[in-house]
Amino acid sequence: MSVEEFEELSRRAPELVRLEFIGGKVRAKPPADGTHGQIVMWLVKRCLEHRADLWLYPACGLAVETYRKGRARPDGVLAPDEHFAGAGEWAAPTGVLMTVEVTSRDADTNRRDRVEKPDGYAAAGIPVYLLVDREGCSVTVFTEPEKGAYRSVTTRPFGALVELPEPVGFTLDTEKFKEYTD
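Given the sequence above, the corresponding structure tokens read:
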């Protein structure tokens, strides 16, 4: 499937279905449950507290992977205020400081959030990828993208202080995530 065919399919998909095109394959991203949404909104608030010059945009479409042949909808995209104004449905990742994914309760989350997404975001040159892993009760920070992979990967349990290095540049206290485990 070409990128153009995927974009047409995505435009015609019902609102309940969020489609992504990663690794040359169409993936359906399941609807978020209440806890998933709460975690994303909690992160939005933390980002604004620490970096008022930046916004954590929920579910923004990004053109990722080598030569922009992938399409992803991260749960959050950290970028400067008004960065995506006029960008359209699938924005270039240029200027994005961090992507955020919160794992879902579906069979595809391992491949999608732990394997394909880090590779796609690294290939796009996004400096930081933050994965909130509800199943593993942990937070993983991927940094130093090089040649389509992140060279540094650090995992900490819920409750730890997690350093989000420059260009994000603040420490995230993940104690609150303990309340969101099922």
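The chain is about 25% helix and 35% strand. Try to locate this feature in the token string yourself.
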